[in-house]
């Protein structure tokens, strides 16, 4: 195994006391960097970039060079799992993901397969191996997957939505079918994350981006139960669980078998620490909109956040991904502020 020159993220994630909070930003690869846009413009689309390992590796490393983050996150998408299970996606320019077919019936769920996941997603594992080689130990590499419930939302709705009424209706109309699909997604995700780890991922994050559309009871039954299976299955590397907008389940996140709990900016820091408990490392949670403000504002809000979390058991991040129209200089200012902060 390669030794890392900067293993701050991994030490912090394991709960060790470190010299400062590590910092990275969700969705740091792609979106904001001019060199990403230049490369992207030469290609047929997003999917070509995701499925071409040396290009995915190049884009993964760009924010390490340009922003000085303490970790890289592999350039891919959460939707590669539905595709490998038999439900292909498209990425519509300026609109987002679309599934030409969606899951409606029992026979649709039957058609979803957990076979050959590792082979079908070998392009991701290859991108991870190339990235690890090219990073040459500069920073750790984060692997990731969507939480089963978030993928379930896309597979049934077929696209992004404010309400996700189709997947949420199915939870009431046919909970048994919902559970069958969620279990298949979970099984595929465990295989996939283990393959990412084998290929070189040093830590993995589970993104439950649509966690907030469910009430607590349903969240426990249709999401947490499956995320729990995933984190229980992974003991090779530290794990991060990010359930966006899911305030009611914060105490539950504290009991999950993961190392790190992600927080969005709507979750008050002191209150969340009390609910989640002292065992977990917390990740987050600056409002990405702070980065539209002045350099002074970015600095003062970042310092306020750091002092609220306090020293130790904190990975600095935004409360969600960087927005595409943010100026990367300002994102860098956030990162520089974290790196210079003295407790
Ligand atoms: C919900 C979700 C998706 N994908 C992802 C999530 C969970 C995180 C979150 O909540 O933001 C995760 C994701 N998607 C992408 C990454 C790459 C690594 C990173 O920098 O974090 C990661 C971690 C690349 C991408 N995924 C996508 C792009 C933009 C595509 C392009 O360049 O045209 C990138 C860089 C496309 C995508 N993919 C998805 C959407 C809704 C969209 C369209 C809008 C957008 O997010 O830009 C689904």
Per CATH, the class reads Alpha Beta
Percent of residues in helices comes to: 40-55%
Mean pLDDT: 97
What is the correct CATH architecture? Alpha-Beta Barrel
Bound compounds? coproporphyrinogen III
Discrete helix count: 16
Large-scale geometry = globular
Q: Numbering strands along the chain, what is their spatial order in the largest sheet?
A: 1-4-5-6-7-8-9
Number of beta-strand segments = 9
What is the rounded Rg? 19 Å
Q: How much strand?
A: 5-15%
Question: What count of structural domains?
Answer: 1
Give the CATH topology. TIM Barrel
Q: Could you give a short account of the major beta sheet?
A: 7 strands, parallel
H/E element string?
A: HHHHEHEEHHHEHHHEHEHEHEHEH
Class derived from helix and strand content: alpha/beta
Distance between the termini: 33 Å
Low-confidence stretches: none
Catalytic activity: uroporphyrinogen III + 4 H(+) = coproporphyrinogen III + 4 CO2
Subunit structure: Homodimer.
Pfam families: URO-D
Site (Transition state stabilizer): 77
């Amino acid at each position: 195994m390669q030794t890392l020159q900067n293993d701050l993220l991994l030490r912090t994630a394991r709960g060790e006391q470190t010299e400062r909070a590590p910092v990275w930003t969700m969705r740091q690869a792609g979106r904001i960097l001019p060199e990403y846009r230049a490369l992207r413009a030469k290609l047929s689309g997003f999917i070509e970039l995701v499925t071409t390992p040396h290009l995915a590796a190049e884009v993964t490393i760009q924010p390490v060079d340009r922003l000085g983050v303490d970790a890289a996150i592999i350039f891919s998408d959460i939707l590669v799992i539905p595709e490998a299970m038999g439900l292909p996606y498209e990425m519509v320019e300026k609109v987002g993901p679309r599934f030409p077919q969606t899951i409606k019936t029992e026979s649709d769920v039957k058609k979803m397969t957990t076979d050959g996941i590792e082979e079908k997603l070998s392009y991701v594992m290859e991108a991870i191996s190339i990235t690890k080689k090219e990073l040459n130990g500069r920073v750790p590499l984060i692997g990731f997957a969507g939480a089963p419930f978030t993928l379930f939302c896309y597979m049934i709705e077929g696209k992004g939505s404010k309400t996700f009424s189709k997947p949420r209706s199915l939870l009431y109309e046919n909970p048994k079918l919902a559970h069958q699909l969620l279990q298949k997604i979970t099984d595929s995700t465990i295989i996939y994350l283990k393959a990412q780890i084998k290929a070189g991922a040093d830590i993995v994050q589970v993104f439950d981006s649509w966690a907030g559309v469910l009430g607590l009871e349903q969240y426990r039954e249709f999401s947490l139960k499956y995320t729990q299976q995933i984190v229980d299955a992974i003991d090779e590397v530290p794990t991060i669980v990010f359930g966006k907008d899911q305030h009611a389940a914060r105490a539950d996140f504290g009991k999950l078998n993961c190392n790190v709990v992600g927080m969005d900016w709507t979750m008050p820091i002191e209150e969340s620490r009390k609910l989640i408990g002292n065992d977990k490392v917390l990740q987050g949670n600056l409002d990405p909109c702070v980065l539209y403000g002045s350099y002074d504002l970015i600095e003062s809000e970042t310092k306020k956040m750091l002092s609220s979390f306090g020293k130790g058991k904190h990975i600095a991040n935004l409360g969600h991904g960087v927005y595409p129209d943010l100026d990367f200089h300002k994102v860098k200012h956030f990162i520089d502020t974290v790196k210079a902060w003295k407790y």
